[in-house]
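Deliverable D5.2: sample structural annotation.
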Amino acid sequence: METAGNRIAAIGEAVLERLEGVNAARERALAETRQIIRLSANAVRAVHRNEFDLAEELLAEAASLKDALVNHLAGYPSIYWSGYVQDAQKEYAEARITLGVLSGRGVPDPEALGVEDAVYLNGLGEAAGEFRRHCLDAMRRGDLARAEEILGVMDEIYGVLVSVDYPDAVTGGLRRTTDMVRGVLERTRGDLTLALQQQTLTHALKRAETFIREQAGRGGVA
């Protein structure tokens, strides 16, 4: 007959075994989420250098890690729903969205990326910061049409995010991300408006200079 002491010892052994599994899952998650974040960040940098194929390779590696980790954590929901796992997925989503928009390859949805809806929306918002950088680069090149195009994408992102009216517990703190996007959008619109005004003034000055030279050539101006 099993004694109380033996029963407690058996229960304790089983609990320790399960905790060992949780701890191992946590250690793996910490290591692999760091890798996913690093690969995603490097992919974003590659996108800004127009190295789209390299970005794709980096994100394919990140996706492989992410999918394997998600499968492994199916039995450890407390680890899966921890902040760092969701953060890594958000960085991956941000990089994929940035690549899709700036390369013209299309915007992936949450199902294609294998991430939760709240994670996707936060990644979408974070991508707006990368689009601002792209807009500023386009403005420096004088490509204001491209800057206007990407500003339109940023405006659409804000329109989607501002329509989400659920508690932060459901959206993963989306309200803070939405506030960030609004600020980025307003600054970018202001920068582009100024650039357009400067371009208009520059064109007007060039037309005036051309007119003066033509008149001088005809003897109309001393």
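Annotation notes: The domain at 116-222 is CATH 1.20.58.2140 (Methane Monooxygenase Hydroxylase; Chain G, domain 1). The first helix runs from residue 4 to 48.
The annotation will be released with the project's public dataset once the embargo ends.
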